[in-house]
Amino acid sequence: MFDYKSGLDFAKELDQKDTLAPYRNQFHIPKDQNGNDLIYLCGNSLGLQPKTTKAYVNQELEDWANLGVEGHTEARHPWLPYHEFLAESMAKVVGAKPIEVVVMNTLTANLHFMMVSFYQPTPERYKILIEADAFPSDKYAVESQLRHHGYDDKEGVILWKAREGEELLRYEDLEAILEKHGNEIALIMIGGVNYYTGQYFDLKKITQLGHLYGCMVGFDCAHGAGNVPLNLHDSGADFAVWCTYKYLNSGPGSLAGAFVHERHAYNKNLNRFTGWWSHNKQTRFNMRDEFDQLPGAEGWQLSNPPILSMAAIRASLDMFNEVGFEKLTEKSRKLTGYFEFLINELNNEHIKIITPKSSDERGCQLSIQVKNADKTLHQKLTEAGIICDWREPDVIRCAPVPLYNSFEDVYKMVEILKAILNE
Ligand SMILES: Cc1ncc(COP(=O)(O)O)c(C=O)c1O
Fold first, then answer.
1. How many helices (H) does the chain have, and how many strands (E)?
2. What confidence score (pLDDT) does residue 423 get?
3. Which residues, listed in sequence order, are joined to residue 200 by a DSSP beta bridge?
4. What pLDDT, on the 0 to 100 scale, is given for residue 413?
5. Residue 103, SS3?
6. From residue 273, how far is each of 106, 248, 285, 298, 306 by CA, in Å?
7. How far apart are CA 203 and CA 208, in angstroms?
């Protein structure tokens, strides 16, 4: 626990002592009309652009201009193995082995490709368990997989719900569901960090429980990657997917990640969709050979990848590697703890933080419920220079990101919120 104090001076003192503070200057911080920095707390939606990104992308544009097709082998970072340059650093960020990680496609597409392999329903075991407040795209994806296999998309989905009057999910309720329905469930697919409440689940615990009942277990880590130490390998999960445009600061709609646990790396019997990029690299260009499955997560690729998007990911991952995840987590806990302290100091009966209190059960995001508020509150915050997001009916989600947000950002945000609420 940190010993926080109120007042702007304390925020400034924390910023002065913050060894990661210089990284803020390595990002483009959006500005208001007068050229002042906006208070950007929306890294849970779209991360900011590192200043180095342009140079990384430009390098590929130059190589393409100068080399044309030769760039596949002759570019400064040759395009043929380009995804391999990302695997090692991405693996560090999500706590996996390089063979378990690949950057490809987009998030929902990866979720489908993973379900092709890890959702293998039978008439006895065909249901999919998700959290009740799963991100809509995940829910739609899961339902469409059920329909695709000829099952009813309502009856086939089992929801892990919060209890009446609560927002957070309890593990004992998951255990109870599994005790009752474990033998009917083919797949458990949970958002590693819930997008709405910010609850960071114990991936290992869920995986062990799921495996005990013979279910496959996968996670959507869109809100976890680059935010919390996911330790995917150690969790034992069968698969995970995530995007790179939130905490991984790689640009709107940028490519996504996928993790397939090492124990599946050499299994050629797993059902999957394939393309030439899932084929053995040594013989890929012989073209006429019979399909020869690449081992590891790479073996789930289909196509030659978009290098410009990968260049942006490389820029971002280089920064993550330089900082190291331990330092990031340390600052993140301190920054979000400070945010929580200030919100609690408001002592306003209409405000409730629905995100877990324990820093082991959350990342940087706080979801703040403001009872009786409507979207005009969000509009006022935006007009006052705070970029955060609003989720109906009454929740503001704010994510102070340790790489570019300051303690002063958080202080100012709470002061502005206080002024608006006192109007
Ligand atoms: C948890 C979660 N799942 C899925 C998606 C959809 O992502 P995409 O549009 O990249 O497929 C998002 C997007 O924000 C998300 O937060």
1. 13, 13
2. 85
3. 193
4. 97
5. strand
6. 15, 27, 19, 12, 19
7. 9
Q: How many residues does the chain have?
A: 423
Query: From ligand 1's centre to the CA of 289, what distance in Å?
Result: 37
DSSP code at position 362: B
**Higher-pLDDT residue of 169, 283:** 169
CA angle 259, 138, 106 (to 5 degrees): 50
* Rounded Cα distance, 411 and 8, in Å: 7
Helices (H), 101-189: 107-118, 136-148, 171-181
Joined together, the tokens standing for residue 270 give 């797993």
For residues 169 and 176, what is the distance between their CA atoms, to the nearest angstrom? 12
Ligand 1 atom with the shortest distance to the CA of 109 = 11
Collapsing DSSP to helix, strand or coil, 299 comes out as helix
122 vs 151: CA distance, rounded Å: 10
Give yes or no for residue 374 having a pLDDT over 90.
Answer: no
User: Which residue has 């309502």 as its token pair?
Assistant: 154
Alpha carbon nearest to ligand 1 atom 16, residue? 222
Distance CA 233, CA 229 (A): 11
Q: List the Cα angle 44/47/50 in 5-degree steps.
A: 160
**pTM of this structure:** 0.97
pLDDT band at 372 (very low <50, low <70, confident <90, very high): confident
Pairing relationship of beta strands 39-40 and 386-387 according to DSSP bridges: parallel
Ligand 1 atom showing the smallest separation from residue 191 Cα: 1
Q: What is the C-alpha to C-alpha distance for residues 302 and 296, in angstroms, rounded to an integer?
A: 14
Assign 394 a pLDDT band (cuts: 50, 70, 90). very high
Residue pair 405/394 in contact (Cβ under 8 Å)? The answer is no
Ligand 1 centroid distance, CA of 30 (Å)? 23
Q: How many CB atoms lie within 10 A of CB 175?
A: 15
CB 86 within 8 A of CB 56: no
Strand-pairing partners, residue 188, are 129, 217
Q: Which two tokens stand for residue 312?
A: 């942006």
Ligand 1 binding pocket (C-beta < 6 A) is 106-108, 135, 137-138, 191, 195, 220, 222-223, 243
How many CA atoms lie less than 13 Å away from 337 in the CB half-sphere?
Answer: 16
Q: How far is the CA of 133 from the centre of ligand 1 (A)?
A: 13
